[in-house]
Amino acid sequence: MKKYINILFAAALTLSFTACQTFLTRDNLTSLDDVTYWRTEENVRLFVNGAYGNYFSGYSDNWGQVNAPGVYSAGEYSDDYTSSGVQRNILLSVPADNWYRAESTPYRGVWLARRAGSAWNFAYVRKWNLLINRLETMKEGGYLTESEYNHWMGVARFLRGWEYSRLVETFGDVPYYDDEVATDDFDTQFKDRDPRSMVMNNALEDFKFAIANVRENDGKNYINKYVVGTIASRCMLFEGTWYVYHKNDEAMKTCSDIDANAKKFLEAARDFAAVVIDSGNFAFDTDFRTLFGTLYTTPASKEIILFREYNKSVNSSAQHCIASYSGGNGGYESQITSGNLSTLKAWICNDGQPYSKTNVAGADSWRMQDMVKTRDPRFEASFVDEPVLSGSTGLYSEKFIDRIGVQYAYNGKTCPTCYASDTNENGYPCVRYAETVLNWIEAKAELADHFGGPAVSQADLDKSINAIRERPLDQTAIDKGVKKTAHLQLSNLPDDPERLGDPIKTTLGYKTAGATSKLLWEIRRERRMEFFLEQYRPQDIRRWGQLELMLIANNPDLGVGGWVELDLAATLTAEQAADLPGNRHAQNTNLKKTKANVGYNLLTAANFDIVAVYPIANSNADGTIKLGEPQFWSNKVEDVSVMRGFLRPQKIADRDARNVDVRNYLEPICTDVINQYAEKGYTITQNPGW
Is 339 helix (H, G, I), strand (E, B) or coil? Predict the structure, then answer.
């Protein structure tokens, strides 16, 4: 693809030339420079294409993790994940460097997973400011028509607004630059941080210009009006809800008119998304797994607004490893971090009710083979429901692979290259319509709840959440008994006990704004089901003021895995398993099978006092389950059938309590930046608490 072309001058340095007095200055006739380059629209396109990988990272590249789904290594930093051992910390002290000058690519992925935002790096701000200036010159020189100028100026301002949004999401206040900065202008280079409200009001103006001027169609898989509308709604929704749930933070004291800005940004999120919705160009016409496991060169669905294509025959780095860690590669790859009981509880049943309120038959079973039949279809599409693969919590996600690739985990055939190692080529839907409608409905609900906006109507739900729930099912899901989820009805909203539960009461968002409404809770649930593992959750829990849920002490479900029946793997021989109906379904351990198709046996002497399960003790009055004390496997266990319950990740320990300090909602300014300011005689303000 054209986007893989490397642009040598993308560092955005302005070149200057002089000539002797006896000769006329002439354009270079044999090579491009900063003067001769800016002559054609195609060159502008190439300049922008060089940044696509930064903004639409998809599955990242090769072994990279940058903004990729977190199915291997450390994964994203969210309450959807649990690992064995001590849980990963977010940040306990000010780092020396968050510029990415020293860190390797894998580390960069971990760094971004903390915030899903941006590093302290203004190179792309400079890139877009340079482009804005060059577009003005091209227009004055007659190299662009009015239409071409408006489109590319819209693209440049869209990307500048997005870049600043990502910086603000990570650091809060940041220095704002709307022009190129001269190399000797230290007063500007080393200016202190501007209030985030001022920065984001400027970003809003950029987005407004972009939505009005970027083309509706600029060719296959290029930025267009609808990409702008969805991303702008994402950025504005983050900012607007941040002001609602963080209004009392020390870091917000630099901002004025917090409520007025919150309302403005939420209205913008609503209106930007509405441009996409009202176009009528997009629909939920394809099953969930096809969106993520397709080797596409064209969009696989009307739901996809922009995708990243992988084709290693065009570029050797145009491949990734995410399918390999989603059940490809013969099923050999473990998922170091995986889902937990908090994740399982979040999935709604197919009657539209939470597990504690449902009337769906069999919904009280936590066996994965039963849950796929009783929960929303995205559950079956996201998790392995047979005991084939290994994860630290007894759960394993296969969301990012097609239906064929995961079969090589148990069919005994040689795994094709496209599913193995870091040679995967399935594409990624970087911008999809589901986000558009969920941004839109959440913004509308927030405006209604906090700023006197019109109440959300049933028609609003029908063209957002309920439209998603009408997404088709594929034959594999149908054969398992999966059913579409009932529509969300304003007249019968679920009342989930978790909404008022003790974990939520520990959070900053609850302390600032109180309990969310029943409707807003269900909108948030829909996001969690829809975007599982897609790097949205770290942003959501931060903007809603729910970082406190990352502590097992506050949120015990984070320390509990999926349901396992460890005695089956320990007591059934291969021959016995082969005689049982269904064979592959016989051993419901949710843990990796051996080559003989027998569930992996954890009940060995080597695992005494290490392997444990949490049994269900009883139900609380509100219908939620109550877990008993963990049952550890030991030489004192006489009846192995007691080793059925929710798996306790081995040697699990809580993360440092400082992870959920209020200061950790924002990244600190690293010491390298502070020192560089000081060396030039300037001072930069640190974030509160650091």
Answer: coil
